[in-house]
């Protein structure tokens, strides 16, 4: 009986280790976020936060999950996040051809953690708009995308939420460029550009 229990315990440990390995492989290696190259040389990337400053806060996870909690926050964009955005955006250009300017608008960010005695979950979301201009500041195209990731760990760890958030940042940028692919003539819908939550006047005032 003891041997049987030990065998089940070992199998369970190996299974959880395998799941953990796949999760961290998913977090840190973006095999699914490649294959897009837009012709152009990026002359500059601006990052503009459209969110109200009063809403921005970092998530605070209680030390013990046994009491249960359900917390949500709209995290600030750190210098590390901005460097990540800059690096990821540049990776989707060929670095040849005409000069282009890129503006990334941060529309929304969410970190959420929920836990009870028996289960927990972590959630990260990023909504971002990206505009591409030519060297004469003419808007070529504009897209807004939202992407989220959820993880249900055995225990809630704050740094995992940060990794999940960074993955959502990289994913939403990929999703925007998946819409761009070949830059087309800008399509307008009323006073806003396609998929846009930013008004035309706000874009032109930059």
What does it look like?
The chain folds into two domains: 1-31; 37-204, Double Stranded RNA Binding Domain. Helices cover 33% and strands 31% of the residues. The protein contains four helices and seven strands; from the N terminus they run αββαβββαββα. Strands 1, 2, 3, 4 and 5 form a five-stranded mixed sheet that branches. The longest helix is centred in the N-terminal third of the chain and has 27 residues, at 2-28. The chain starts with a helix and ends with a helix. Residues 2-21 and 185-201 have low confidence and may be disordered.
H/E element sequence: HEEHEEEHEEH
How many discrete domains?
A: 2
- Envelope shape: elongated
Please give the count of helices. 4
- pLDDT averaged residue by residue: 75
Largest sheet: 5 strands, mixed
**Any idea of the CATH topology of the largest domain?**
Double Stranded RNA Binding Domain
Multimerization state: single chain
Question: Radius of gyration, rounded?
Answer: 21 Å
* Beta content: 25-35%
CATH class of the largest domain: Alpha Beta
State the separation between the terminal residues, measured CA to CA. 72 Å
Low-confidence stretches: 2-21, 185-201
Q: Structural class per helix/strand content?
A: alpha+beta
What is the CATH architecture term of the largest domain? 2-Layer Sandwich
**Percent range of helical residues:** 25-40%
The overall strand count is 7
Key phrases:
alpha+beta, 2 domains, disordered N terminus, 206 residues, two-stranded antiparallel sheet
